[in-house]
Design goal:
Distance between the termini: 62 Å
CATH superfamily of the largest domain: FAD/NAD(P)-binding domain
Strand content: 15-25%
Shape: globular
CATH class of the largest domain: Alpha Beta
Bound molecules: flavin-adenine dinucleotide
Length: about 725
């Protein structure tokens, strides 16, 4: 049997379009790889002389609930088409394109198809549209082609930047790289993967509109194999989100030389998506908002916090988190120019009297440039880094540099960090102390399953794959409260429909069907779910209740009669007001009692995207959900019907538990001794403020506050240690 493994995308050389069905193949098994949403879709196809006899897809790098879930449908389409000329799966466009690319390459190898010219494209400017990160509509790019080459790409409409600050990094970095390489196989910009893939797919659509075949435009972009060694830093900061930037600044302020490593195309991480931090009795905020008066009883906060963790094991750390939350904010205001507004704009989720517990970052443009996730604030972090860099000309940070592992000396002491730049260059950066600030492990499916039992939908940064936590463990660091539940304040449908297969108003109805609380709910185990006060304490607040559901989701259940009722007499009062905080797709719900004539179309499209399960019996529903039929039957009182199950899923900001640290942010071994030159901050160590099995300290702004407090402490401690050497 012949087996050829062809790595990424020689399609420009191989020429061609998907081989026609029933091409002549050399029997054997052929494997090829292509990028989907992430890198590394692998297609393995087995052929005999006449056609495809089997195909296997490795989609393990793709998002499990979207690309991964499309696997069976894609295999079915390939076997039916006997070629790569398939429609793909709605909602999994990026995975579908990657599968088509890899399959094309494998079949070309099987049929012996060799190079040739690309299909000709006309000169001119052509428009292409593709789904992207934006919730409110797809992205459109205008692509200028001259003499068979891309000479210009302009994004002329997008809604990505309405949901955060990430789109700009995709636009600024990816477009020149596509033009320079004349290839769509350039890597997505880390941290802006969906926006990058949106741009890439819009350009592909424009190439097709110009008469070309975009599948031929994925020529391999070579990587470098250079190695760079950087030595003699006092402090290395791994991850330049909030806690990393604060650590970097605090270390620089002490006179240390600092090197920052950031995987994404820009700094800021989750921290630039937030509204703002908790800051108790900050002098700056008092002066600005309360005529110098204290605005909260910090002792109350400390008491509630200690009750929440049910242990005084980390009392000293929690005391820092409470009593120094205001002074840490003041430190960065005074020394690094941070600015805040809106003390009291947001009340505490938990204790109504704490009405001035957290504040909001000031935006630029006189506080006018807000998106749905809060004010634009990357500029504040960049400004702080400029101030820090002015303190020592050696100070520097690099973006698009992903830290891979720690470097140890012969005695097992961490002395540096190994990292990879986007162009393939590897870096070894050596320093006396290392601060881990990689923001937890939300983007790592294996760690999510290992520590939290299941993956969860993400609205937070998926660059955060637990690298810092794993590095800390490699140095002997222990974990603490790693089972604290993920940060969830948002529920939505399982798969946001980013195409125009439904109108915004229709999407709003689908969301309402998932979010309403006036219909029966069942868990993924087929048991009843209540959605209220699952935590056992009324204080947790409703927005976090879903995080207690098994697998962080449940199903809203409708019978055929319910759906007929919606078609004829409309949504109920509860349904007509069920909207998603932060993840609304912009539509308007009809008033209660207004017939929804297109409910069947909404459900049918929802079914295609994995947002609706339709089943004609309890057994069929149980099989689709993957639960025990007898359990589900008991839950449904044995009532056979046509059921519509609409998943309501958690959308998480991040994870919480991480490395064990002491009050100096020193990473601790299992025996409680500190690893002297290793520190962990932000979500890499936030378990020390929390409790396994509970929703994270949910009084508002605490997560972001911890980045200030832990960042200031770790930066100063690491610098002091390094400078004392
Ligand atoms: C939409 C949203 C809204 C939120 N709102 C609030 C709020 O209002 N108040 C609040 O308190 N909290 C809020 N949070 C939570 C809060 O943002 C986080 O808890 C906090 O910002 C985490 O900071 P961090 O430094 O640990 O992580 P991040 O800020 O995410 O920084 C981690 C950084 O590490 C980088 N990185 C990861 N892996 C590597 C690697 N291998 N090599 C190099 N770099 C790497 C990432 O790219 C990232 O820049 C919100 C979160 C989100 C997503």
């Amino acid at each position: 049997m012949k087996k050829i493994t062809c790595f990424v995308l020689m399609l420009a050389m191989l020429a061609c379009i998907a081989p026609a069905a029933l091409a002549e193949y050399t029997p054997g098994t052929y494997t090829a790889e292509a990028p989907g949403h992430e890198q590394g879709i692998v297609v393995t196809v087995t052929v005999d002389e006449a056609g495809i006899t089997a195909v296997d897809l490795d989609l393990s790098n793709e998002t499990e609930s979207i690309g991964g879930a499309a696997k069976d449908a894609l295999i079915e389409q390939i076997m039916a088409a006997q070629s790569a000329d398939i429609d793909g799966v709605s909602g999994a466009t990026e995975t579908s394109t990657g599968v088509k690319l890899a399959l094309t390459e494998a079949l070309n190898a099987a049929s012996g198809a060799t190079g040739g010219e690309k299909q000709a494209v006309s000169d001119g400017t052509f428009s292409g549209t593709a789904p992207s990160f934006g919730l409110l509509g797809p992205l459109t790019a205008e692509v200028t082609l001259e003499g068979g080459k891309i000479t210009d790409i302009k994004v002329v409409s997008e809604t990505d930047s309405a949901t955060g600050e990430w789109f700009a990094s995709a636009e600024e970095l990816l477009i020149p790289r596509i033009i320079e390489s004349q290839s769509l196989a350039v890597d997505a910009i880390t941290g802006a993967t969906t926006s990058s893939n949106g741009i890439r797919n819009a350009v592909a659509a424009a190439i097709d509109a110009a008469g070309g075949n975009s599948m031929e435009w994925y020529a391999e972009v070579p990587k470098k194999d250079d190695k760079v060694v950087i030595e003699d830093y006092d402090v290395i900061v791994v991850g330049m989100g909030g806690s990393g930037v604060f650590s970097y600044c605090a270390a620089a302020d002490q006179g240390a030389s600092v090197f920052g490593i950031e995987a994404a195309g820009k700094i800021g991480g989750n921290s630039v998506c937030t509204y703002g931090p908790m800051a108790l009795n900050s002098e700056y905020l008092k002066e600005k908002f309360t005529d110098g008066q204290d605005y909260i009883n910090a002792d109350d906060v400390y008491k509630v916090w200690m009750d929440y963790v049910e242990s005084d094991e980390k009392a000293d750390v929690i005391a820092e988190a409470v009593y120094n939350s205001g002074s840490a904010l003041d430190y960065f205001v005074e020394n690094f120019g941070f600015e805040f507004e809106g003390l009291g704009l947001l009340g505490s989720f938990v204790v109504p009297e704490w009405d001035k517990e957290w504040c909001v970052y000031s935006a630029d443009d006189g506080n006018t440039s807000w998106n749905v996730l809060g004010p634009n604030k990357t500029f504040q972090f960049l400004r702080a880094l400029d101030i820090a860099n002015a303190k020592n000309e050696k100070n520097q940070y690099m973006t698009e540099l992903t830290a891979d592992s720690l470097i140890f000396d012969g005695a097992g002491k961490a002395i540096g960090v190994r990292a990879t730049y986007y162009d393939g260059t590897t870096y070894e950066i050596y320093g006396k102390t290392i601060i881990l600030a990689t923001g937890g492990f939300l983007g790592n499916d294996e760690m999510m399953k290992e520590y939290l039992g299941a993956t969860v939908n993400t609205i937070g940064d998926t660059v955060n794959k637990g690298a810092g936590i794993r590095m800390g463990q490699s140095a002997g660091g222990a974990l603490y409260m790693i089972g604290t539940l993920p940060m969830v304040h948002i529920s939505q449908v399982a798969n946001l429909i980013r195409t125009d297969d439904l109108t915004a108003d229709q999407k709003a109805i689908l969301t309402a069907l998932a979010l309403t609380t006036d219909v029966p709910m069942i868990t993924t185990a087929g048991e009843p779910w209540g959605n209220t006060n699952q935590s056992g304490t009324a204080d947790e607040g409703i927005s976090v209740e879903i995080v207690f559901a098994p697998d962080y989701m449940y199903y809203n259940l409708y019978t055929q009669a319910d759906i007929d009722g919606i078609r004829e007499t409309g949504l109920s009062e509860a349904q007509a007001t069920a909207t998603s905080m932060f993840l609304s797709q912009g539509g308007t719900l009809p008033e209660a009692g207004t017939p929804v004539a297109d409910i069947d179309e909404i459900l049918a499209v929802g079914e295609r995207y994995g947002d609706v399960i339709k089943a004609d019996s309890i057994a069929e529903l149980a099989a689709a959900i993957g639960c025990d039929g007898a359990t589900l039957s008991e839950t449904l009182g044995g009532k056979e019907d046509t059921y519509y199950a609409v998943p309501c899923t958690s959308w998480a900001y991040g994870t919480v538990g991480g490395l064990d640290v002491d009050v100096n942010m020193n990473v601790l071994r299992a025996d409680g001794t500190p690893i002297e030159n290793l520190f962990a901050v932000g979500q890499d160590s936030e378990g020390v403020c929390n409790k396994d099995g509970k929703a994270y300290t949910p009084w508002g702004g605490q997560a972001q506050s911890w980045t200030f407090v832990s960042g200031e402490i770790a930066g100063k401690q690491a610098a002091a240690l390094a400078l004392a050497e």
